[in-house]
From TrEMBL:
It holds the Pfam family CRISPR_Cse1. The lineage of its organism: Bacteria, Bacillati, Actinomycetota, Actinomycetes, Kitasatosporales. It comes from Streptomyces daliensis. InterPro entries: CRISPR-assoc_prot_Cse1. Transmembrane segments: none annotated. Residues 552-561 have a biased composition (Basic and acidic residues). This is Type I-E CRISPR-associated protein Cse1/CasA. The gene is casA. Residues 535-561 are annotated as: Disordered.
């Protein structure tokens, strides 16, 4: 596979093709992306490329200065020659059909009954017994070797949990089966990939120098799986031997044991079993491509503080709504409970590394734009099926990642709070109209909020991309206040105009002090406009709030995640 095309690429001119491993590195400056069959597959393939690059550079650049040389040298300075020589030395380790050490597989993997299963087990777009809206009406009966290789890589990273066939030699087998051991190596992560304009930039942006030991540990034992002294068997490696010891081993982690069956022309079957379990807890010094959160439950269970677990992505929540956690490591309300000293969370280390470079290096200036791409899987039914795939991104200036120059970052977080507040009030308006009509409130509230976030999605992304060094942050925030206020106010007017006759007629409701009041569309709309003005627009813009209460636009308590 070092010389045979199997990696799908999208070139800068829009052409799609397949390239070999060697060609991908040689043409990295002309490649826009490695799109894959699914977004999750792209992430797994990028991690594979990073493992190759780390190992070809003997652990990566030694220092920031060495990294800067790679970044500033342009295409001619990219170490494609070193990678090509490395791949030539290890060519047989990338052979998908090698008789003893097939790539990412176990050569003699078998069940006690010598069963061979359908390729659906590793092809994530063909769920077993559920082929609705798939291009494979009869399942994945045969795969080209190129496609099979991509799905093997994907299986190690994203495979579902559940009961699997037991492989001969695996001590975990009971009655021919192995009971759930967890999802693939990336399955419990809220993956974050820093993307540049080309594959060359993307690889370098995610390549952390060895001297940044507080962000990413590189132990001497760190090796990619293909350089392990002995081929893997069916049994999991002992924990002390497995690691992970650094990015090379982690990015090629063998969470599964796989063996393809083929007829020399294509793959027609597979054996898929559990491999090495990955300890997710407190891995923030090893895994730089996810955020981390403190787990009070694990702290109580283990009687130790702190305990960090990966912060996963919510498929129902757009990337910009989680901006605070992404660039600061914790949601904004956590700061009010104790600030950074309490360390409620840790930002993805790859973004923290770029924030440092934005502050301290001329190579990657503070006005440099990147895309923070968020990827992940949401699993259902005891993690035995993939319920949803997360793929979202944000274009932002690297200065927003700065750990010290926080003015722009804090402005971005404040803007998200204002958007959340405006949409929260829109949901309250929809619920109030339903209450006035005497109908269910939950569904209108949820639908209004979904519509509100959809209305603000494009404008916020555009606003964020313009939040760069040198702008007037007060003016930018004011612009966003008015954008959020005006757009949500317009949606509110539409809701009121379309409310039912029963809502316009209204109902008599009791007050907390024993009196009564009339609730109808007009009174609900009045309260919505007043609160939206008070909480989203600066108070001095429209005069003091009508009720004379505190006009602080702080996010309502109900919005706390």
């Amino acid at each position: 596979m070092t010389s045979q095309p199997w990696l799908p690429v999208l070139l800068r001119d829009g052409v799609e093709k397949e390239l070999s491993l060697t060609e991908v590195f040689e043409q990295a400056h002309d490649i826009r992306r490695v799109p894959g069959d699914l977004p999750t597959q792209e992430f797994a393939l990028i991690r594979l490329l990073l493992a190759v690059l780390y190992d070809a550079l003997e652990g990566g650049p030694d220092t920031r200065e060495a990294w800067e040389e790679l970044w500033t040298a342009g295409p001619d300075g990219f170490p494609a020659d070193r990678v090509a020589a490395y791949l030539a030395r290890h060519q047989e380790h990338f052979d998908l059909l090698h008789p003893e050490r097939p790539f990412f597989q176990v050569a003699d993997l078998r069940t006690a009954k010598d069963e061979v299963f359908a390729l659906d087990r590793i092809v994530a777009d063909v769920p077993n017994n559920d082929r609705f809206l798939t291009m494979r009406a009869h399942g994945a009966q045969r795969l080209s070797f190129a496609e099979a290789a991509r799905w093997v890589v994907h299986a190690h990273a994203w495979d579902v949990s559940g009961i699997k066939s037991g492989a001969v030699g695996d001590p975990r087998v009971k009655a021919g089966k192995v009971y759930p051991q967890g999802v693939g190596s990336a399955g419990m992560l809220g993956c974050v990939l820093a993307e540049g304009d080309t594959l060359r930039e993307t690889l370098l942006l995610n390549l952390i120098p060895r001297e940044e030991e507080d962000l990413l540990r590189h132990d001497e034992e760190d090796l990619p799986v293909w350089r392990r002294p002995q081929p893997l068997g069916a049994a999991p490696l002992p924990e002390a031997e497995a690691g992970p010891f650094g990015p090379r081993g982690l990015y090629t982690w063998q969470a599964r044991r796989v063996r393809l069956h083929h007829d020399g022309e294509a793959a027609y079957g597979v054996v898929l079993a559990y491999g090495d379990p990955l300890p997710y807890r407190d891995m923030h010094g090893r895994e730089p491509m996810t955020g981390w959160r403190r787990s009070e439950q694990q702290e109580k269970k283990l009687r130790t503080i702190p305990v960090y677990l990966p912060r996963t992505h919510d498929p129902a929540r757009t990337a910009w709504r989680g901006l605070a956690s992404l660039i600061t490591g914790y949601p904004p309300e956590a700061a009010r409970r104790g600030g950074r000293d309490a360390a409620p969370g840790i930002t993805p280390r790859v973004l923290e590394w770029l924030g440092r470079m934005a502050e301290e290096s001329d190579a990657l200036g503070p006005d440099h734009m990147i895309r923070a791409r968020l990827l992940g899987c949401s699993y259902g039914t005891q993690q035995s099926v993939v319920a949803d795939v997360v793929d979202d991104s944000l274009s932002l200036s690297v200065v927003l990642l700065s750990p010290h120059d926080t003015a722009l970052r804090d402005t971005a977080v404040r803007a998200v709070q204002l958007a959340e507040t405006a949409v929260w009030l829109l949901g309250n308006l929809a619920a109030g109209l339903a209450e006035a009509a005497g109908t269910d409130q939950a569904t209108p509230r949820a639908e209004a909020r979904e519509r509100g976030f959809g209305e603000l999605d494009g404008p916020f992304r555009q606003w964020l991309a313009g939040l760069t060094p040198g702008v007037d942050i007060d003016e930018r925030l004011e612009n966003w206040r008015r954008t959020a206020h005006d757009r949500v106010r317009a949606l509110g007017s539409e809701l009121v105009a379309s409310s039912s006759e029963a809502a316009w007629e209204g109902r008599v409701k009791p007050t907390a002090k024993g009196g009564t009041y009339w609730l109808n569309s007009a009174s609900v709309e009045y309260g919505f406009h007043k609160e939206l003005r008070k909480r989203v627009l600066a108070p001095e813009d429209d005069g003091p709030p009508d009720d004379g209460q505190d006009s602080s636009p702080d996010r309502p308590e109900e919005l706390t995640p």
